[in-house]
Design a protein that fits this description.
With 204 residues, the chain is of the alpha+beta class. 41% of the residues lie in helices and 12% in strands. The termini are far apart. It binds iron/sulfur cluster (2 copies).
């Protein structure tokens, strides 16, 4: 019996030693939070998911060039005379249609290098940090606001404008060449006439 009580006491004492740290933490404020019910307050200048305000994007490609991992892909189309694309919120005139603006956020390393060169501050980090996906393709964010039909229309308009401009240029060059040829012929005829007149003058 004595032995039984001794063993019981030893077991109890050992448990108490093991639980010492646990008991101590019952009286210390918790450093963990009940995520996702409670969300942590993010620090200033946090780097999370990128966003592009396309209303202010002028298609300058500076963010694309600055990205060290090439996860931004932009395609632009020049506007044609008569098209008014408006101005950005900081007063820059827009002259290019942005027909593609994809960010592959799965490749993004959150370096923020694309944000600093933007002349209109339209690409920036947001406070969104929960954006997991089941499909890899869902990480490619498409920011373009034009519809597929509008994109095609802008490309077609520009192509037609360029063809027209080239044909006008070719027609002007042809006209200039014809004028120069006519002038040259006129000069040749004049000099020939002068040569024909000279013997008669000598006879007199
Ligand atoms: S944060 Fe860095 S890696 Fe991500 S898109 Fe911008 S430049 Fe590229
Ligand atoms: S740097 Fe800014 S304005 Fe230029 S293409 Fe990128 S997002 Fe648009």
């Amino acid at each position: 019996m004595k032995n039984y009580i001794l063993k019981f006491w030893q077991g109890f004492f050992t448990i108490m030693i093991g639980m010492k740290v646990t008991f101590r933490h019952l009286f210390i404020p918790a450093v963990t939070i009940q995520y996702p019910t409670v969300r942590p307050e993010m620090p200033e200048r946090e780097r999370n998911r990128l966003y592009v305000n396309m209303d202010d994007c002028i298609g300058c490609l500076q963010c694309e060039r600055a990205c060290p991992v090439n996860c931004i892909e932009i395609e632009i189309v020049k506007s044609i005379p008569g098209e008014d694309l408006g101005i950005t919120s900081n007063g820059k005139k827009k002259a290019l249609w942005v027909t593609k603006f994809d960010i592959d956020i799965a490749k993004c390393c959150y370096c923020e290098l694309c944000v600093f060169p933007c002349p209109t501050d339209c690409i920036y980090m947001t406070d969104v940090y929960e954006f997991s996906e089941f499909e890899r393709d869902n990480f490619i964010y498409d920011f373009v606001t034009l519809t597929p039909d509008e994109k095609e229309e802008k490309k077609k308009n520009h192509e037609e404008f360029m063809i027209k401009k080239e044909s006008e240029k070719a027609a002007a060059a042809k006209m200039k060449a014809e004028e120069e040829a006519a002038k040259k012929n006129e000069n040749v005829t004049k000099s020939k006439n002068n040569t024909d007149d000279k013997p008669e003058e000598n006879k007199e």
